[in-house]
Amino acid sequence: MISANFARVLHRELLANGVDEAALLANTKLDRNRIWYSPQIDPSQFLQLLQNARSLVRDVPLGFMVAGRNRIAGLGMMGVAMVSAPTLREGLQAMASFSTVQAGYLRLDVIAGRPTTRVRVHSLLDLGNCLDIHIESVFSLVQEYIEDVAGRFSSEDHTVQFSVTYPDSGRRAVYETALHGDVAFNARDNEIEFPTDWLKRPSPYADAELWLVARRYLSEQLQQAVGLEPRPFSSHLRSVLAANHPPFPEIAQVADSLHLSTRTLNRRLKEEDSNFRQLKLEAIHNWACRQMLAGVTVEAIALELGYENPANFRRSFREYMGSTPTEWLDQQRRAATE
User: Fold this and answer.
1) φ, ψ at 231 (rounded to 5°)
2) 178 has which bridge partners?
3) Helix (H, G, I), strand (E, B), or coil: what is residue 226?
4) Residue 198 DSSP class
5) 258 or 191: whose pLDDT is higher?
6) What is the largest CA-CA distance in the chain?
7) Cβ(147)–Cβ(170) under 8 Å?
8) N or C end of the chain, less CB within 10 A?
């Protein structure tokens, strides 16, 4: 299921602009009452609603329109967590964790690196010609949040990059107006890239009590998702670790943030055929791979990860990845030229 907030804003805005309601709701099994008085709606019905909207107003960037009217308040407890978080890092990481249990078919990953961090968007469904509507909405909301915490950024200083997997198709002018950064089309991923140093910035809206409520709610949602979502606690740990860089948090810190004992969190991970050591090794080596692709030396990576010497890091990398750092990097470079 997916929150009805976006459907409500879409319904309101299009009817205000003269769109026929019957045409907008055609083949959706939705009516005005279901949109306005149900907390969630079926994803297939929502996607049909978007397809109808696209056919009725072809030249309107629907994602920017909906997100511009919805704002962070439309994200429910996810929005509460983001706004009340102490820092940008914790707010974005909370967004990623909530997306695993609350955002239906849409997922967000925060991937911290040096010198840049990426917020990546992907879907569990084939969104077809509605992909751009979703990306526009997410990009607008994440941009609003980052600017609320870190301050408004300008496309003139080229510190922020927006990348989308679909072609320009005459959208560039609209995107460059709506998004405050460089825009790249036909990219590999749908993501926002910005300086990692911004993650440390404290939020002017931080609220310790609301942040506590939001984390407790997330813990409850993760526990209720067991059996409904694939490996919710493992997904949460992955999002926490990916949003960090060395030194990575220990399991006691993660358990405390969820108001669980370390023993309980370990048990939850075991039920998902997972464990913290495995997830942390995955995060460490994924981070190392990103660093190598960015041109950082093995020696520098080993030092930042806390290895006594580069040989120990090379040994660990080979055991986990099945090749040495040099072999892995050569493979990636060859693949990029094929």
Assistant:
1) 50, 60
2) none
3) strand
4) G
5) 191
6) 68
7) no
8) C
